[in-house]
Amino acid sequence: VYGPARPGERVMQRFGPILGATGHRRLNVLFTRAKHQVRIFASLTASDVLVENGRRGLESFRGYLAFAATGHIDAMAGSEGPPANAFEESVLDELRRHGFDGVPQVGSKGFFIDIGVRHPSWPWGYIMAIECDGKSYHSSRCARDRDRLRQEILEGLGWRFHRIWSTDWFKDSVQERRRLEKALTRRLAELMPERKRREGSLKEAEVRTKAVQKTWLQRVKSARKERQTTLEVPPATLPGAMMDRPTGDVGSVPAPSSAEDSRIRVGDCVTYAFASELERPVTITITENRNDPDHGFLPKGHPTVQQILGYVEGSEIEITIANRSRFIRILKVQRPPSVSA
């Protein structure tokens, strides 16, 4: 239900409950209800959502839209913390020197990564994990836990690892810094084709969304123009005026002979349904003055009738009911039999 007020305009950042402290939980409930398939129909894309610091709901909303468009999802860090020691601080300094952003102590209990590496060219999360033989390494219960199992699990979640030993870092700093730089450069080069693909997918999703918006806007404008033209039809062409002519040699009312005569008017029996409930049609008969909704009779002055007068069978229009905009489809229009003299 969120989107621009008009196609092409900026999306106002008014996302209701999503902006609240529990916005991400509301979205989680929504996202996990499907058992077989999810289809998303949206008037906005991930790029329309501006993420603010601390707004977990916005982050989840933007991330889910991006996932729907690209098919890729990036794991979010559970927490972050300060560097464990001077060794990690020196590695962080080296990362900054080469234009990378290092985030210490990324993850959650039992699976902290010493340093997560980010880069402006990859806005979807971390590009690499750097493991140092620091606190998390020495606190592992056994070598198998610290050297293989933990890394295997994290690699299964998409992490790419680069390990630095403190003895090597301080013994041959130049060589280790070069090795780190090569690993980062190689990893960034590996991600560039994927970046182009993701950006292409997002762009394609935006183009599709704008095309749908444009088509729908054209349909709405066409329907409004059609209705305005109908309202300009002289009263003499309406059946009520023809039936109210002075008595005499009246004869019978001629059958509709033009497109104008096929439009909804007083006396017609009209069947319509809301666009979201096509399986529950509603049938009304438009009268001059009779107001009996329980039996399907509504007068021409009724608000609903006023909004459908002039349309034809098959039209899809927007009407207002109880201060709420709804789209309906005219399923069938039945003309009353000719009137004899």
Task: Report on this structure.
- It is a single chain.
- This protein is of the alpha+beta class and 341 residues long.
- The protein is built from 9 helices and 9 strands.
- It has helices at 23-31, 56-70, 86-97, 135-138, 143-156, 166-171, 173-231, 239-243, 303-308, and strands at residues 101-106, 113-118, 128-132, 161-164, 269-274, 282-287, 297-299, 316-321, 324-334.
- The strands form 2 sheets. A 5-stranded mixed beta sheet has the order 7-6-5-9-8. The protein has a 4-stranded mixed beta sheet with strand order 1-2-3-4.
- A hairpin with a 6-residue loop joins strand 1 and strand 2.
- Mean pLDDT is 77; it is low at 231-258.
Briefly characterize the structure.
The chain is of the alpha+beta class and 341 residues long. The chain is built from nine helices and nine strands. 17% of the residues are buried.
Keywords:
four-stranded mixed β-sheet, five-stranded mixed β-sheet, elongated, 9 helices, alpha+beta, single chain, 341 residues
Tell me the strand order in the biggest sheet.
7-6-5-9-8
Structural class: alpha+beta
Order of helices and strands: HHHEEEHHEHHHEEEHEE
Distance between the termini: 54 Å
What multimeric state do the chains show?
single chain
Low-confidence stretches: 231-258
Query: How would the global form be characterised?
Result: elongated
How many helical stretches? Answer: 9
What is the share of helical residues? Answer: 25-40%
Largest sheet: 5 strands, mixed
Q: What would the average pLDDT be, to the nearest integer?
A: 77
User: What does the radius of gyration come to?
Assistant: 33 Å
Strand content: 15-25%
**Total beta-strand segments:** 9
